[in-house]
Amino acid sequence: MGTYKSVSEAAEFFKGDKFATTNGMVLEDLGEDYSVCSMVLGENHRNALGGVMGGVTFTLADFAFAILSNQIHSPSVAQQVDIIYLSAPKGTKLTAKAKCRKSGRTSTVINVDVVDDTGRDIAQYTAIAHKL
Asked: What is the DSSP letter of 97?
């Protein structure tokens, strides 16, 4: 059984992640080995060239990772993170789907796929969580 009994319990706890939540990121779904977070893109998410800032994509993936890693074991913190940007978003919404690849004694490996609402692959994010 995970740390959180429901999506709403986890969402309430992660309201404390002010950077993510004040930028419109929300938890949509949570299970034992996955989480799904999303956000609607707005003008405040764009860079000077009009594209979505890479930090927006990274933060959404990191938010999904944080929720899942702490669902598996709380508290957990990021130990190593890698992101590959695949495409610029063309849609109006981003979704990050985190999946546990391995949960060991002291660490958890999680992959996050970020897509936009046109079905475009935006980023692949992989992280190792250290279980405190």
From this structure: E
